[in-house]
Specification:
- The chain is α/β, with parallel strands linked by helices and 426 residues long.
- The chain folds into three domains: 6-132, NusB-like (N-utilizing Substance Protein B Homolog, Chain A, Orthogonal Bundle), CATH 1.10.940; 178-225, no CATH class; 228-424, Rossmann fold, CATH 3.40.50.
- The protein is built from 19 helices and eleven strands.
- A seven-stranded mixed sheet has the order 7-6-5-8-9-11-10, with helices on both faces. It has a four-stranded antiparallel sheet with strand order 2-3-1-4.
- Helix 4 crosses helix 5 (73-88).
Length: 426
């Protein structure tokens, strides 16, 4: 039987990472990068950490009803992890409590482990009470489904009660992991048996595949991990593939590589641009595994990109198509980015809208006559989608809106996104 070092177990590491998250390190993807754990323990760590953060509001509210004053961060993290397990597996409550208290004895003081024991034994009833509430106002739904009230309120106004409940239920379920099969990689015809076909052409589900097989395919460039929603913006060009594409805000590279796949046979190429620093470094690293694709990388702030800079790098100054995948609130991808709902606040939306407008204006400068412009987000907010596109078209008479719109995850079965196709008139 395989034994696991307690200090390097998925549970203990998730407890440590949860403390860092609660202490202000708000990006789970950064915390989970490069876990030096056995693959099974790494999966366990991700499960505990993402599940706890996904349900954070509900869990904290339940615990606050039993504790007059929150304990130090280590104790709070243990309580939250155990609370998540109790919510998921109420029929295993004694076993969960025993396990958490046992771990607490080596991580906390005796009084603290006693507190943990007492609180956890009372917790299942409160979790059941909160989860079973039936209110349909923003506060009731926000608590039951562990989302900020302001976010739920916006969705109720935009989509109505039933659709909002469907979206909340969608967000609270662990999402499958998808990958796109990279055509022409030389490895794409012999994928492992654990990779499951999906209804989206070129995409497979790898959630249950052995991690050793996934890693091998990633390193060889046979697959690239991305949600099927990422195909929506590139597919707006699929019927008439352009010869030259400028991909702005391109990191980590998923859309650039998909576009490269579409035009490689016709001799076209993609220029992918993002900020100098970690983003461009990640884009270059990913592109290194896709060396057969015609994707060129350029480090620049999109708002400061000029024709002179493009010329200096031997690149065109006008493109048949320009795609700008703007920073946004991420409200369409909360099933996978479970921390995003705790990072963004309502007042951030106005700043995002201004930035999105500036980026779309910048992108429009590089579209040639009769060329196409794609605006893309992973947000469900109308203010970040239709409103930004309509404002741009109103201010730039040389552009017209052709197609596109909002993709809703509870209807499509994949992440949400906004994808809009515009054309520059001759």
């Amino acid at each position: 039987m395989k034994t696991v070092d307690r200090e390097r177990s998925g549970w203990n590491v998730s407890c440590h990472l949860l403390r860092r998250f609660l202490g202000g390190h708000r990006r789970l993807d950064h915390l989970l990068d490069n876990l030096s754990l056995d693959p099974d323990e790494a999966r366990r760590c991700r499960y505990y950490l993402t599940g706890t953060v996904r349900n954070l509001r509900l869990l904290e509210t339940a615990l606050d009803r039993l504790i007059a004053r929150r304990p130090r961060d280590k104790v709070w993290a243990i309580l939250l992890l155990a609370a998540f397990e109790l919510r998921e597996y109420p029929d295993q409550a004694p076993k969960i409590v025993h396990f958490a208290v046992d771990r607490a004895k080596s991580l906390t003081s005796r009084p603290e482990s006693g507190l943990i024991n007492s609180v956890l034994r009372q917790l299942p009833g409160i979790l059941m009470e909160i989860s079973g509430s039936t209110g349909s106002d923003s506060e009731s739904l926000g608590l039951r489904y562990s989302h900020p009230d302001w976010m739920v309120r916006r969705w109720l106004n935009a989509f109505g009660t039933e659709a909002t409940r469907a979206l909340l239920e969608w967000n609270q379920q662990p999402g499958p992991v998808h990958a796109r099969v990279v055509r022409g990689s030389g490895h794409d015809l012999n994928l492992p048996d654990g990779f499951k076909e999906t209804r989206w052409e070129g995409f497979v589900e790898i959630s249950s595949a052995p991690w050793s097989d996934v890693t091998k395919c990633l390193r060889s460039g046979a697959i690239y991990i991305q949600d099927p929603a990422t195909r929506l913006a590139p597919d707006l060009l699929r019927d008439e593939p352009p010869a030259t594409i400028l991909d702005l805000c391109g990191a980590p590279g998923g859309k650039a590589f998909l576009l490269g796949d579409q035009i490689v046979a016709d001799g076209g190429f993609v220029v992918s641009v993002d900020l100098p620093g970690p983003r461009i470094a990640r884009l270059k690293e990913n592109a290194g595994r896709m060396s057969h694709l015609p994707v060129r990388i350029l480090a620049s702030d999109v708002r400061k990109l000029t024709e002179e800079r493009l010329e200096a790098d031997g690149l065109p100054t006008r493109y048949a198509a320009v795609l700008v995948d703007v920073p946004c609130s991420n409200t369409g991808v909360l099933r996978h980015r479970v921390d995003a709902k705790w990072r963004v606040v309502e007042k951030d939306i106005a700043g995002l809208i201004r930035l999105q407008g500036h980026l779309l204006e910048a992108a429009g400068r590089f579209v040639r006559p009769n060329g196409r412009l794609i605006y893309s987000t992973c947000s469900l907010e109308r203010d970040e989608n239709d409103s930004v596109v309509d404002a741009f078209v109103s201010a730039n008479a040389e552009f017209e809106r052709l197609s596109g719109g909002l993709s809703k995850p509870w209807e499509t079965g994949h992440d949400g996104a906004g994808s809009y196709l515009l054309r520059r008139k001759s």
